[in-house]
């Protein structure tokens, strides 16, 4: 069975899905995107992702072509058509197709593209072993709160991490960690507090981050919302990342230095369990 994707109103086999040459996403990176985790066939934290999409679109002044209900039925349909129970849904909206000119086109319709990627999230081997991270300079633009499809700085950062034998890059500005190349970054202090950078234009407001903060509050795990330096991260008891496609993933080395005892830590493991049970609740309720 061929993979089914969604493009501008139609579900079709991926081989038949063609975006016009002059699409502004292709020419300018003029668009925004979202990525949502799927577990047990259920969309995780979808309302919050759609809310962030609305905000990203409004910030770059691209018309939102669908209501939340319409987006949700498209997402459910693409999951159903691909028979996906666990993985990731990606979708992007660009400013549409027009002759190349920097000014906004007057009559272009937004281009909407959506696809799924099957992936083991709950049982990912990386969740058991933990991953390696390396730090690189944060070379992105000044509006990182917008989920823009311009990901060149992240592509370069993550490739540098891969070439250094790591799975994620932590981006650093003025000595402080901003976030991961495609994830939010956390440390756990020796006293057991979670430390995470506060929201601003310097980072993406991660949806998994938001749920994690709620879960840690409910579990009464102390939380410090403040910036942290690379040195503080080296010296932390634990480190972890969050993202829609990984949930909570332990980090066991940063720049080749072991974090804590070099194994996934107890606070990280607990938060991952809490996140997984939260993600599984809708599926159980639906039975
Ligand atoms: N990346 N920070 C950045 C720069 C990201 O690209 C992402 C997500 C996150 C985590 O946000 P969330 O919890 O909402 O997924 C933080 C997605 C998964 C990606 O580009 O594939």
UniProtKB/TrEMBL annotation:
Record's function text: Acts on leucine, isoleucine and valine.
Cell cycle keyword on record: no
Enzyme class: transferase
GO molecular function: D-alanine-2-oxoglutarate aminotransferase activity
InterPro entries membership: Aminotrans_IV, Aminotransferase-like, BCAT-like_C, BCAT-like_N, Class-IV_PLP-Dep_Aminotrnsfr
Pathway listed: Amino-acid biosynthesis; L-isoleucine biosynthesis; L-isoleucine from 2-oxobutanoate: step 4/4; Amino-acid biosynthesis; L-valine biosynthesis; L-valine from pyruvate: step 4/4; Amino-acid biosynthesis; L-leucine biosynthesis; L-leucine from 3-methyl-2-oxobutanoate: step 4/4
One matching Pfam family: Aminotran_4
Alphabetical UniProt keywords: Amino-acid biosynthesis, Aminotransferase, Branched-chain amino acid biosynthesis, Transferase
Name of the protein in its database record: Probable branched-chain-amino-acid aminotransferase
UniProt cross-references to NCBIfam families, sorted A to Z: PRK06680.1
Catalytic activity annotation: L-isoleucine + 2-oxoglutarate = (S)-3-methyl-2-oxopentanoate + L-glutamate; L-leucine + 2-oxoglutarate = 4-methyl-2-oxopentanoate + L-glutamate; L-valine + 2-oxoglutarate = 3-methyl-2-oxobutanoate + L-glutamate
CDD domains: D-AAT_like
Catalytic activity, EC: 2.6.1.42
UniProt organism field: Microvirga terrestris
UniProt-listed PANTHER family: AMINO-ACID AMINOTRANSFERASE (PTHR42743), AMINODEOXYCHORISMATE LYASE (PTHR42743:SF11)
Protein family: Belongs to the class-IV pyridoxal-phosphate-dependent aminotransferase family.
Gene3D superfamilies attached to this UniProt entry: 3.30.470.10, D-amino Acid Aminotransferase, subunit A, domain 2
């Amino acid at each position: 069975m061929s993979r089914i994707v969604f493009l501008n109103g139609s579900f079709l086999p991926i081989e038949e899905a063609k975006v016009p040459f002059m699409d502004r996403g292709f020419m300018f990176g003029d668009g925004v995107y979202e990525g949502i985790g799927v577990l047990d066939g259920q969309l995780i934290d979808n309302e919050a992702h759609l809310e962030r999409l609305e905000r990203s679109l409004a910030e770059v002044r691209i018309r939102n072509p669908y209501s939340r209900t319409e987006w949700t039925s498209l997402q459910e349909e693409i999951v159903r058509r691909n028979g996906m129970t666990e993985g990731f849904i990606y979708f992007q909206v660009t400013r549409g197709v027009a002759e190349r000119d920097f000014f906004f086109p007057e009559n272009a319709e937004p281009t909407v593209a959506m696809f799924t990627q099957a992936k083991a999230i709950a049982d990912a081997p990386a969740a058991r072993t933990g991953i390696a991270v390396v730090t690189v300079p944060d070379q992105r633009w000044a509006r990182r709160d917008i989920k823009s499809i311009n990901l060149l700085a992240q592509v370069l950062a993550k490739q540098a991490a891969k070439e250094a034998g790591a799975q994620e890059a932590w981006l650093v500005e003025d000595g402080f960690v901003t976030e991961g190349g495609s994830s939010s970054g956390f440390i756990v202090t020796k006293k057991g507090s979670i430390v995470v950078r506060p929201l601003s234009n310097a980072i993406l407001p991660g949806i998994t981050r938001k749920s994690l903060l709620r879960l840690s509050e409910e579990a009464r795990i102390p939380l410090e919302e403040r910036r942290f330096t690379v040195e503080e991260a080296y010296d932390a008891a634990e480190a972890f990342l969050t993202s829609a496609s990984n949930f909570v993933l332990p980090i066991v080395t940063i720049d080749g230095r072991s974090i804590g005892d070099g194994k996934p830590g107890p606070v990280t493991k607990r938060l991952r369990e809490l996140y997984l049970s939260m993600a599984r609740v809708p599926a159980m309720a639906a039975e």
